[in-house]
C-alpha cells in the first residue's frame, strides 16, 4: 500500500488561502464608503436579480464579492440570526459587530476544515449610526478574520489598487453624489493605470441613510435617481471648473 505524501499544516493552510484568493479575484470588485448622511455601497454588477448588496436588519447592510451561491447562503444565515435575536431580545441587540462575529466563526470553521473547500468570498458588514462617529464597517476575508474599517473599504479582485485610490481621496463629510463619483472612479481604474467607463446600467448602488424617517435605513438607488445623482455631480464639477476659469481670467 502506498504511503500518502505528507503536507505540513502551514503549507496546507497556505494552499487553501491561495485557492480562496484566486476565486475571489475572479469576481468584480465593490466599495463601501462613509458619506455625510450614512454609508454607500457601490459595485459593478450587470445583473438586476443577483445582488451583491442586501439589507440584513434595520440599520445593517451586507456586501459580498466572490461566488454568489456561497455568499448568498451566508446572507440568508445572517438574516435568520438577526431576526431571531431581535425577536427574542430587542431590536437594538442586533448589531453589525455581533453579526460579523457570527460570520467570522462560520468562515473560520470552513476554512480550517479539511473536509470541505474554503469559501471563495469576502464580506463587508456595515451599520449606520445616529452620527458618522457611530458608523461601523467590518471586512471579513475568506479565513474568518475581522478587520475594523473606517472611511472606505474595497473587496474583490482589484481591491488593493482600489483601496489605495480611495485612501488618498476619500474624506469625511462627502455628499452622496461626491462619494458615488469617487467610488465609480475607483472601480473604473485598471491595474495598468488606465481607466475605463462604467455605465450607470452596470452599477449596483445602495445606501444606509441615517436621515430616513423609517426604522429601516437600507435603500437601493436605481434608475432615474441614480442617473440624477451622477449627472448632478458632473454638473457641479463643470460649474466649479467654469468658476475657476472665470477667476483665472479676472486675475
TrEMBL record:
CDD domains attached to this UniProt entry: proteasome_protease_HslV (cd01906)
Chain intervals for the UniProt region annotation (Disordered): 232-251
GO CC aspect terms: cytoplasm; proteasome core complex, alpha-subunit complex
Biological processes, Gene Ontology terms: modification-dependent protein catabolic process; proteasomal protein catabolic process
NCBIfam families xref list: 20S_bact_alpha (TIGR03691)
Family (UniProt): Belongs to the peptidase T1A family.
Protein name: Proteasome subunit alpha
Gene transcribed to yield this protein: prcA
Amino acid at each position: 500500500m502506498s504511503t500518502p505524501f505528507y503536507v505540513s499544516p502551514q503549507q496546507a493552510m497556505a494552499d487553501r488561502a491561495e485557492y480562496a484568493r484566486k476565486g475571489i479575484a475572479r469576481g468584480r470588485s465593490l466599495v463601501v464608503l462613509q458619506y455625510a448622511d450614512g454609508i454607500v455601497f457601490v459595485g459593478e454588477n450587470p445583473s438586476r436579480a443577483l445582488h451583491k448588496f442586501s439589507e440584513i436588519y434595520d440599520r445593517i447592510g451586507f456586501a459580498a464579492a466572490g461566488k454568489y451561491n456561497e455568499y448568498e447562503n451566508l446572507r440568508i444565515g445572517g438574516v435568520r440570526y438577526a431576526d431571531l435575536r431581535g425577536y427574542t431580545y430587542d431590536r437594538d441587540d442586533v448589531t453589525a459587530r455581533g453579526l460579523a462575529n457570527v460570520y467570522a466563526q462560520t468562515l473560520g470553521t470552513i476554512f480550517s476544515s479539511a473536509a470541505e473547500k474554503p469559501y471563495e468570498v469576502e464580506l463587508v458588514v456595515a451599520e449606520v449610526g445616529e452620527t458618522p462617529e457611530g458608523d461601523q464597517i467590518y471586512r471579513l476575508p475568506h479565513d474568518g478574520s475581522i478587520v475594523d474599517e473606517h472611511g472606505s473599504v474595497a473587496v474583490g479582485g482589484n481591491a488593493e489598487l482600489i483601496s489605495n485610490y480611495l485612501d488618498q481621496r476619500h474624506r469625511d463629510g462627502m455628499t452622496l453624489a461626491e462619494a458615488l463619483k469617487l467610488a465609480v472612479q475607483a472601480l473604473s481604474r485598471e491595474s495598468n493605470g488606465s481607466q475605463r467607463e462604467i455605465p450607470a446600467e452596470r452599477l449596483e448602488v445602495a445606501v444606509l441613510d441615517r436621515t430616513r424617517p423609517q426604522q429601516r435605513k437600507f435603500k437601493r438607488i436605481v434608475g432615474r435617481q441614480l442617473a440624477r445623482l451622477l449627472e448632478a455631480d458632473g454638473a457641479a464639477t463643470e460649474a466649479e471648473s467654469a468658476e475657476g476659469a472665470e477667476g483665472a481670467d479676472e486675475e
